[in-house]
Amino acid sequence: MIGQSLHDLFYGFGVALEPHNIMWSFFGVLIGNLIGVLPGMGALSAISMLLPLTYTMHPVPAILMLAGIFYGSQYGGAIGAILLNLPSHPPHAVTCLDGYPMTRAGKGGTALGITMICSFFAASFGIMVMVFASPLLVSIAFKFGPTEIFSIMLLGLIAGGTMSRGSPLKGVAMTVFGLIVGCVGTDVNSGAMRFTFGFPELTDRVELVALAMGLFGVADFLRSVNRMHFVGNETKVRLRDMRPSKDEMKKAFLPMVRGTLVGTLFGAMPGTGPTITTFIAYAVERKVSKHPERFGQGEIAGVAAPEAASHSKTQVDFIPTMSLGIPGDAVMALLLGALLIQGIQPGPQLISEHADLFWGLIASFWIGNVLLMVLNVPMIGVWVKLLQVPYRYLFPSALFFIAVGVYSTNNSLFEIGEVLVFGIIGAVLLALDFPVAPILLGYVLGPLVEENFRRALLLSRGDMTVFFTHGISAAFMTISILLVAAQVFFGLRNALRARQGRKPEHLLPAAGKPLDEIAVEE
Amino acid sequence: MGRLEALGKDVVGGILMIAIGIWVTIQSHQYPAGTMSRMGPGFFPTALGVIMILLGIAITAVGVLARRTKPAVAEKQLPPEWKAWTLISLSIVAFIVFARYGGLIPATFAITFISAFADRDNTWKSALVLALGMCAIAWIVFWWALQLQLPLFQWGA
């Protein structure tokens, strides 16, 4: 089996290295990278804008180009997340948490370098896993019924909600808010309209890109206007800054490996998107770390793990997407759409029937990652120029890019209105110290969670215990309960300690206290 | 505003969550809930609404308790930026209106020009230059190169 896979992979390299294929791949990477760096433009808008171009092409170069756009913009998105705190592609929301503080500390170049190394390492690992383990992973993925899918998603939601900075209660509340936002639109089972406020545009759910851009783009502009003057502190990121020091490499190595493993694990499961993967990779890293308090303040592990996870996940994600036809996220769904337009039906027979396409695609991912590294070494100066743009020029331009980017995903002006609404909601929530990233997680998983919950109970005839009696599901549920119990336990212990350890002078009004001392206490 | 701040962020946030939860629960009552084995469209949102109310109560409780154990801390207050917030929101609305009744170029000009004034350091001249620059990008990159489905100029819908 493995010999066969290796043979197929070599064949794939042959396909991907054909001159016109590699040319389209390079073109895709270049355009994707360029668009991905623009604030407000992510893989979704880039692919949907260039999709019409592929109608006249052959299937193989068409898919290679779209895939090139995908990982090009994915890497470009990481640049935007690290340098500008703008996640154009939702999975990078987590990268912002530590990547942006690194930029502010003058370490933006290192963060980019680490991202590049991690993505290359993780992608290479993901390809190896596909080759050696894809038959096995597919057979496990086949065993997942709605019960198991619901349990794993619940685990993901709880982990995602409690991992955010600050109060876990608020994180979970935001996850639930995201689930509620995910309910907006037509109910798949009954066709009933929910929470549409009478807008026909809302029957097709809230647009993902609009939600992300509102919560992370506009909300941030509303918060920072007149309070920020330069995005970076005019630090110069040169080529040699991008090469992480030995010490930084050492710090990033284990998180990179762990992130890759998380990404690989989740890639094999149908329906779990890259966003949840990066969130979990980050959560794991924070739990494992000896200095969890440093996360969110520019910890290198907080960049390495999610970036590695998202890239290995992207690779492995092609197993369920191609073999089962279940896309992990919106981008995968778009790529599936492109395949269907070309007259290729994804399903178990795809790998055998269109071997050139499947293995060529995998090989092109590796080649594309090499291209990406080669391309970004000379281009880094251009990306860094973005840093030197004063904020007063940056945010009006970014607003325009957001508006055009959101419009281009569906040619809908209504969705730009959604951006504004979620921007204001996001700004209010941020002002009240709520983390906004879990909203996105809840939104993406919401419909899948509901669907699988309903299906599981339909199969069990309304018996709720089914989640605890099925082996795999029971394991996920147990971990979820342990997670909640641990949070409650630590929360109560901290509260008790705060009460017992309270010294008399704390009762005095804090009038005379300097501000920074209070901040340390918090 | 001042009275809200006196309550503390957790209390305000918790009450907001309770309000959202109540609204969602009431709204979901319009949709049939069905039975456990055959759930209707109302079941899941109702459950979410109830969970939200419970979380809101918990957040409020934590906020109230924290107030009791810890004396009120005067945080560094930043003055509200009403003008900037209005201008940014307005610029997005302007983009939608002008894209519908004017085309890509007027919309681009509007969103950049109006939002530029949200920042106090921008002058008429810098806002104009920025807006014209963005129009050029809109024309060359989006309309010409990426073939954005929006005419440069159009009158009426």
Helices, strands, pairings?
The complex is a heterodimer of chains A (522) and B (157).
Chain A: H1 2-16, H2 19-37, H3 43-50, H4 59-84, H5 93-104, H6 108-142, H7 146-163, H8 168-183, E1 185-186, E2 193-194, H9 208-224, H10 239-242, H11 246-267, H12 274-288, H13 301-323, H14 330-341, H15 350-353, H16 355-385, H17 391-410, H18 414-431, H19 437-459, H20 466-469, H21 471-500, H22 504-507, H23 515-521
Antiparallel strand pairs in A: 1-2
Helix pairs in contact in A: 1-16, 2-4, 2-16, 3-4, 3-14, 3-17, 4-5, 4-6, 4-14, 4-16, 5-6, 5-13, 6-11, 6-13, 6-16, 7-8, 7-12, 7-19, 7-21, 8-19, 9-17, 9-18, 9-19, 11-12, 11-13, 12-13, 17-18
Chain B: H1 2-7, H2 9-28, H3 43-69, H4 82-101, H5 104-116, H6 124-145
Helix pairs in contact in B: 2-3, 4-5, 5-6
Structural summary, described in words:
The complex is a heterodimer of chains A (522) and B (157). Chain A is mostly helical and 522 residues long. Chain A is 73% helix and 1% strand. Chain A has 23 helices and 2 strands. Chain A has helices at residues 2-16, 19-37, 43-50, 59-84, 93-104, 108-142, 146-163, 168-183, 208-224, 239-242, 246-267, 274-288, 301-323, 330-341, 350-353, 355-385, 391-410, 414-431, 437-459, 466-469, 471-500, 504-507, 515-521; strands at residues 185-186, 193-194. The radius of gyration of chain A is 23 Å and the shape is globular. The termini of chain A are far apart. Chain B is mainly alpha-helical and 157 residues long. Chain B folds into 2 domains: 2-69; 82-145, no CATH class. Chain B is flat. The two termini of chain B are 41 Å apart.
